[in-house]
Write a structure and sequence with these properties.
mainly alpha, name from scop, 2 domains
């Protein structure tokens, strides 16, 4: 039965959410990564100012000395490039580590620890041009476009206004040394990064709320889907009902067999029945063979009458045995006296029958 999106009125079940998570379909904001990266980038710039200056100066000295001091050829090109790449790596390594750390931290904050290869598997549905066109004009795509344009505009605006504030000090850098000039550019970059990070954090919050809402909306289910899921988890209700009926019948049959093998049936007298067996030389103590409540108790009494098994009424003992002793277990010591009196009565009744 085809059901459109308007019929999806039910919230996703826990199973639907678990299955979606296993497939890598989770709610998260990519803008949070960018915002945290900008923020941490701004913070480490101030702390690593001297480190960056020293390594940048070493890189420039190496580049100029290698270029001016010797000719590059097949013999020394490999060594030169290796050293050059090492110098670049030393400069940018802290930022690379920060990017990796932020990526992991952001994902853990939003979705917890999750590893899945499902998104890497080929999906030929993505090659469907009609579906692709539909995705281009979807609400999510339009929101992403609007968000990207807003980010571009705000970043350009913040950069422009920020540089305007530093324009006058920038014009006075002509007479200062290289180290102070480098520190100035670090400060400019750090200030701009903090301003951009503040904007990005606000945008990331909006994006996170939107993504969360869309995620829940996309996972909504129809009443039919919930019924089908229940059938998969619990089985068809009709089959389950039939299975329970068979189990009840088997349980009743076992109870009736136990009643037939019992010595006496103790009742309260209407709601509870306890089938008790005691055979001298076989049982060390009286054994509860079966117990029943209401309908089952009635059936046990009917069978006991049919098989001429003595039925003795003892309300306190019947209730106590029903709630404290399981079928197949011996009677506890505290009940010996009451049970012994009943068994003595039963044996007396049986002896009288034999005497007749």
């Amino acid at each position: 039965m085809a059901e459109d999106k308007h019929s999806k009125t039910e919230q996703a079940t826990p199973k639907r959410l678990r299955d979606s998570r296993k497939k890598g379909q989770v709610s998260k904001s990519g803008d949070l990564n960018s915002a945290l990266s900008f923020l941490l980038f701004a913070l480490i710039l101030g702390a690593l100012g001297d480190y960056l200056y020293k390594n940048a100066r070493t890189f420039m000295q190496f580049t100029l000395s290698s270029t001016l001091g010797q000719e590059l050829g097949p013999a020394n090109a490999g060594t030169y490039l290796s050293e050059l790449l090492l110098q670049v790596l030393v400069i940018f390594l802290p930022f690379g580590l920060v990017a990796v750390f932020i990526g992991i931290l952001s994902n853990v904050m939003q979705v917890g620890f999750l590893f899945t290869v499902e998104p890497l598997k080929p999906d030929f549905k993505r090659l469907n041009p009609l579906q692709g066109a539909k995705n281009i004009f979807s609400k999510k795509a339009l929101f992403t476009l609007f968000k990207s344009l807003m980010k571009l505009f705000i970043v350009v605006y913040l950069t422009y206004t920020g540089l305007q504030e530093f324009m006058k000090p920038l014009l006075n850098l002509g007479g200062v040394g290289l180290e102070k000039m480098f520190s100035f550019f670090i400060e400019v970059t750090r200030t701009l990064s903090i301003n951009i990070a503040a904007f990005m954090l606000v945008l990331a919050l909006i994006d996170f709320v939107f993504e969360r809402k869309e995620y829940k909306k996309n996972l909504m289910m129809t009443k039919h889907e919930i019924k089908e899921e229940y059938k998969q988890m619990e089985g068809d209700p009709k089959i389950k009902q039939k299975r329970q009926q068979i189990q009840r019948q088997m349980s009743m049959a076992r109870t009736m067999q136990s009643v037939e093998a019992s010595t006496v049936l103790i009742t309260n007298p209407t709601h509870i029945a306890i089938a008790l067996r005691y055979e001298q030389g076989k049982d060390d103590a009286p054994v509860v063979m079966a117990k029943g409540l209401d309908y089952k108790a009635m059936k046990m009494k009917e069978l006991a009458k049919e098989k001429k098994i003595p039925i003795i009424e003892n309300k306190p003992l019947a209730r106590s045995m029903y709630y404290k002793v399981e079928p197949g277990s011996s009677v506890p010591v505290e009940m010996y006296q009451a049970v012994a009196e009943i068994l003595a009565l039963v044996f007396t009744m049986n002896n009288k029958k034999k005497a007749r």
